[in-house]
Design a protein that fits this description.
Elements (H helix, E strand, L loop, with lengths): L9 E4 L2 H12 L4 E3 L6 E5 L3 H10 L9 E3 L3 H7 L4 H10 L4 E6 L16 E5 L4 H10 L3 E2 L14 H8 L5 E4 L10 E5 L4 E5 L5 H8 L4 E2 L22 E3 L10 E4 L13 E4 L6 H17 L4 E4 L8 H12 L3
Parallel strand pairs: 1-8, 2-8, 4-6, 5-9, 10-11, 12-15, 13-14, 13-15
Antiparallel strand pairs: 2-3, 3-7, 4-7, 5-6, 9-10
Helix pairs in contact: 1-5
The chain binds threonylcarbamoyladenylate (TXA) and magnesium ion.
């Protein structure tokens, strides 16, 4: 399974039969893309360095960028990581769900070194998606899963997006299910007694701060050397150039709009998508990655993006759009 030769990618149904086949493939060291409530993940057995090496190769991911280990229960979480009071409170409130906690590695951990890029910490997430939960329950081991896209590209919110990037490079993809949130999990590090936000995502910052009872320290400093090694400036990159904060659409540009207000020049745009005509950041998050792919597919040289408020899921949306605009 570890070779990089082309192989047929099986399509699995999102039911008990698909789940059993996915577990069989994972146990054998295979790579299976499956839906979660955030985005599709590309799963491998987190204990198996050979499978993890194949995963890095399949999505062209640099090996210094560690993976999130998905777990199905609190018992498994505590076997893999050491939780302080803040981590415990956040896990109790938001698991299962779109929150990843980076905690010190526990002595009983089974996730291999390669999956953590050699770090003394581990990123853990308990997803809420029905299929993902069934898969983790049936497996009983941590499933490491980055977003199932080619490294640096837009994350997948449908099986078709996975296949567009990875068909013939992975063993299987689970079809016929949707990602409800559409943006990756929020990542919070609980390492030194002070919770820090490493990546905005599916749980809004405000909700996390409400549980902690204080503001969340943000990761500051050099954006080319972030604390979440995957949070490099250029990411989520479509082929088109991305122009942010557009109050005027230029002729021929593809337009990514938000909310009910008309935007000048939209009538001469090459293509127009509104992320949420009613102005909901939740709806916009769910539509973001598919809309970027759709506008990119029109062949427009530039995608012009109207301003999006930074509240709720807006912070994560603007984070992803900022990285998409940073280009390659
Ligand atoms: O919603 C999600 O989180 C999706 C689904 C599939 O669960 N997964 C996902 O994985 O977005 P990925 O690989 O695209 O992003 C994982 C991020 C990377 O930025 C990585 O650097 C960071 O988590 N990370 C993983 N382990 C870490 C650690 N020990 N310390 C700091 N950052 C870590
Ligand atoms: Mg990713």
């Amino acid at each position: 399974m570890a070779g990089m030769e082309a192989r047929p990618t099986a399509r699995l149904p999102a039911d008990a039969q698909g789940c059993a086949e996915a577990v069989r493939l994972l146990r054998a060291g295979g790579l299976v893309a499956f839906p979660t409530e955030t985005v599709f993940g590309l799963g491998a057995d987190g204990r198996n360095p050979g499978a993890v090496a194949a995963l890095y190769a399949a999505k062209w991911r640099p090996r210094f960028n560690p993976l999130i280990a998905h777990i199905g229960s609190f018992a498994e979480a505590h076997r893999e990581g050491s939780f302080d009071a803040a981590a415990d409170a956040l896990a109790q409130r938001f698991w299962p769900g779109p929150l990843t906690l980076v905690v010190p590695l526990a002595p009983t951990a089974t996730v291999c070194d390669l999956a953590r890029a050699g770090l003394a910490s581990v990123a853990l997430r308990m997803p809420s998606h029905r299929f993902a939960r069934d898969l983790l329950d049936a497996a009983g081991f941590p499933i490491v899963a980055p977003s199932a896209n080619r490294s640096g590209r837009v994350s997948p919110t449908a099986a078709a997006h996975v296949l567009a990037d990875l068909d013939g490079r992975i063993d299987a993809v689970v079809e016929g299910s949707t990602t409800e949130i559409g943006l990756e999990s929020t990542i919070v590090a609980c390492l030194d007694g002070r919770a820090r936000l490493l990546r905005p995502g599916g749980v809004p910052r405000e909700d996390i701060e409400a549980v902690l009872g204080h503001g969340l320290g943000a990761e500051q400093g050099d954006p080319t050397r972030p604390m979440a090694p995957g949070a490099l400036a250029s990411h989520y990159a479509p082929r088109a150039r991305v122009r942010l904060d557009a109050h005027l659409i230029r002729p021929g540009e593809a337009a990514l709009l938000f909310g009910p207000d008309p935007v000048a020049g939209a009538e001469t745009a090459g293509a127009v998508v509104n992320l949420s005509p009613t102005g909901s950041t939740r709806e916009a998050a769910a539509n973001l990655f598919a809309s970027l792919r759709r506008l990119d597919a029109t062949g427009a040289a530039t995608i012009a993006v109207a301003p999006i408020p930074n509240e709720g899921l807006g912070e994560a949306i603007n984070d992803r759009l900022g990285r998409a605009a940073a280009g390659r």
